[in-house]
Design a protein that fits this description.
mainly beta; four-stranded antiparallel sheet
Length: 127
């Protein structure tokens, strides 16, 4: 079991930066790829970024590539999402999630492949 708690959201102006954190508890954290998803009102949950269990590789949605950076600190059981050059279209609730598979080298962008989810943190970007 993995329990996830996100923090770091807020209201910022376009062009600003935010760093989201996701604190994990549970003994299996270091074995799972981790992902960030987001969901705007009236929209489906969409993939944002993922990082491998070993931190050796990352994967991003085209919409955030070059602006967002995912990282993890396995010693602290924490995953981060550094968001730069924020745009109004980045406004959404952001969720971290743990892949249900262990030690996989395959990145999934599908929400159903992630077994554990946090409660979400709201990011609002004003124009």
């Amino acid at each position: 079991q993995v329990q996830l708690v996100e923090s770091g959201g807020g209201l910022v102006q376009a062009g600003a930066s935010l760093r989201l954190s996701c604190a994990a508890s549970g003994s299996t954290f270091n074995r799972n790829n981790m992902g960030w998803f987001r969901q705007a009102p009236g929209a489906e949950r969409e993939f944002v970024a993922a990082i491998s269990w070993s931190s050796s590789s990352t994967y991003y949605a085209d919409s955030v590539k070059g602006r967002f950076t995912i990282s993890r600190d396995n010693a602290k059981n924490t995953v981060y999402l550094q968001m730069n050059s924020l745009k109004p279209e980045d406004t959404a609730a952001y969720y971290c999630a743990a892949d249900r598979r262990r030690y996989t080298s395959y990145f999934s962008t599908a929400a159903h492949d992630y077994a554990y989810w946090g409660q979400g943190t709201q990011v609002t970007v004003s124009s």
